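User: Show me an example of a complex going from sequences to structure tokens.

Assistant: Sure. Here are the input components:
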Amino acid sequence: MTAELVRGQNHPLTEARPEVRVTAARPVAVGVVLTDEQGRLAGVEGVLLPGGPAGPPGVGLPGRAAGGEHRVTVEPAALPETVHRVGIVLALPAGARFGGGPAPFTAVVADGSSGPPLVSYTITGLDSECAVVALELYRRQGAWKVRAVGQGYAAGLAALLTDHGLPSAEAQRLAAVAAVAVVAEQNGDRPLPPPSAAGTPAAGTPSAAGASAAAGASSAAGTSAAGASSAAGTLSSGAPASAAGTSPSGTPASAAGTPAAGTPAFGTAASGTAASGAPAAAGPPAVGTPAGATAQSHGGPAVPAPTASAGVTAPGAPEGSAARGTSGGAPGGATAPEGAHAAPGGAHTTGGAAPMAASGAPGLPPLDAPGAPGAPSAPSGGTSGAPPGGASGRTEPSGTHTAPGSVPATAGASRIDYRHPRRERASSAQGHDQAQDRTRTRGEDGAEQPPAPVAGDAAGWSMEERLYNQVWGMFEDLARAVAAYRGAVEFADNRRDQEIDAVLGDYRARADGTVDRARREAKARREELVGRAQQVLDQQLAQLRAESEVVEPALPPAYARWESPVWRSYRAPEEQPLALRLGDLSLPESGALRIPLLLRLPLERGLWIDSGAGGGAGGLLATPEERRRLALDMAVALATRLLAAHPPGAFTVHVIDAAGAGARALTPLARAGVLAEPPSVGPAAVSGLLTRLAGHVDLVQMAVRAGAAESLPPGTDLSQRLLIVHDFPHAFDDRAVTALRYLADEGPRAGVHLLMVADREDAAGFGALLDPLWRSLLRLTPVPEDHLADPWVSHAWTYQPSLPPGNGATLEGVLARVAAARRG
Amino acid sequence: MTVNMTKGQAISLQKDDGGSLTAVRMGLGWQSAPRRGLFGRRVREIDLDASALLFAGEQLVDVVFFRHLVSDDGSVRHTGDNLVGGAGTGGDDEAILVDLQRVPVHVDKIVFTVNSFTGQTFEEVANAFCRLVDETNGRELARYTLAGGGAYTAQIMAKVHRSGPGWTMTAIGAPSNGRTFQDLLPDISRQL
């Protein structure tokens, strides 16, 4: 009867000599951590890893069973008294993660039993982790139990060990040992090619096989550096020490074999997707800087390009898998990408070479190898970039079975750093990266500095679009910031009122001074909260102001204020603008900050400048006459802006000034000659213009609907048109009103836009007939008024019209240049 | 490092470099009900809903859920209701984004809940999980596995609350029952 555990569940363990079996679909290092009651490691002797020293009595790693399972034998009674917990640890090579494949399966069986397991646990729910504490056997009141832990570590085995109280350096050294073991296991997984003929003594022992592989590799490669060959031996033998033994050179490169040198071969990704596979990365744990690591990989110039004589170039390491190899716990894993990139060029078959990487029979315990004869002395290649102990030779084991005899001895000889300079590296180099981040994002005072604003800091195809999106982003930011502030203040007010009410309801409290005190307290609490809200708001406003200061000067004419210098140096554009600035928006809380109100072009609906007495406070300040004058000035400014924002000839303006009352204000437009025709005065001219425009809309619509825009009669002007209607409804009969409504509804799709300058009260005689017209238009006011709502939180925004400064010189200057551009 | 949180475990939402988090996402994913052939047994879709409840002290001030996708101040956003679930391969099917810097000052707790709108208990839902992600770099801060849970239809996942200048997340993982967050309010108030 098997007890299937879920995470966190435990189960009694009565077996005297239980055996833990781990089944994983890919190479994995299975180790043990022996910890005290608090789950702390006393030292390195509490860590058992394949390829490492044997642990205390009572626990052993006999290697893999016939079925491919990893085994861990435990004899609880024989364990030292200080050991209270036995954690079964699984570690993947760097770059691999548990999330990508089938969940590892663990089981506890009676010693030697082939029956069903006592307890089983499938480690599910893992994702980016590459090391995990799978099971834990622990003492509980004299008896032993087993618990499903499943605690994963994305940063790898080193992080796991550190978490158990091991010093970081020790943890990384051990992680490197495990990494080597995984590679050995990976080799062991493959069919073994025939042993080397290169005079290998005592090929029967795994370590000797490893040695011979190294010897064979280097002798065959001839020129290949000892760094490569010794590392090859390291990887294939599964015993770091043996590699050291094989290389008699005594150069630093040979020291790669020792764990301390940090042969963190975790980079040898279990890719298996390419014949050549990924190279292992090496680097001393102490070197955290990518640059340093790169130098390391250069240190092993074991890329014998000339040895390609055999002809077959291995397809190279899959770049992705190797590049991801940095995520492992192995220090120096950052070198993997270089190695990977080097592989396509550097992985060569050396014909007739003794097959290497062929040793490492599954699960054989590491042995110290005697120094193998025949290993060439190392050229100093390994030393060039490598500090003592930093070897970087690497080999590719997985290629051996597909291309027997190949020695893809690829050191990371590529001098090109393909890593993205800014990309996040979820690697062991994290600590280093974070240190960099800290220096970058923290100011001298230790507070986080918001990044300096930049104009155009938004998405978009063109600068114009980016600016447009940025302005809308600022608009939203301000809306949200103020919403948060208002929410907080409202909450604070409500809470104060409730607290005061609660006290007032208590009659006894009225007698003494409790009420006053409570009232003071409630008010103080309110002030405190509002103060905090204000502080946050001020901070956000300051940031937006800074952004606004950068953005405003960068705006093109169509977006810019009239005061902006771009208007002084105005030149006719070649393309239609994306949007048009209608004015500024602000909120009471926003202080001096103004957000440009940008309206997308072409206009989807008409505009209505309300010359009547609106509801806003500003409406009371201006007299009706003033408002009317301002309204028409604003219409002229808008028309000028539209004309100026379009390429010459792409925009025409018609004016209806039925009573002729606006002649003076319209003079600049008329004088510059930018109007399509003189303003229409009087009923006949009005209805004539409306009829012509309606006919134009009809024609264009018909043509567009029929998909025959090119069959329009010659001479049809397809430019965008703006119709300014002043003094509505003077001189408008029912037919003209109907035509106007038709234009308002259908015009925008045919490029005819309406700009009404009117007081709704004047048209009261038409009753409800005109309500749809007013509603279909975007209402603007000649004086600041809070009638516009934002699409996010529906604040009432104060609209401030944009009027050219001073005596109209700016306006006339622009109009003159528009007219000049039109003439040619 | 991903933390597989256990009940009541608190983690401080600080970046590893000491800076405080600015944006977190609560992701919810589950596997849709298996589909059968045209005339096979009809299966009911599984609709899990993620909600975020904003509290000022003990008082609920705002809720972000599938009928109110953006909090009034815009700091908390729901990416939209998913009615049937996904492939169950680990992707988020629903997500709630919290811009911690924008959260109004009076809001000091945000409680995340998961409800089964269609009424299936978590026993019946495959591959359901809930996780908290640092939205700025995509790093997973905490993860809960819902699947294989008990016979209940809702879970109060976690609360993110102010502590000092930053925020702290406490895993709650308390089971509850209900179709939407309203049904959970009594249970939630116990967890505040």
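The lines above are the inputs; the final block is the predicted structure for all two components together. Confidence is low (pLDDT under 50) at residues 189-448 of chain A.
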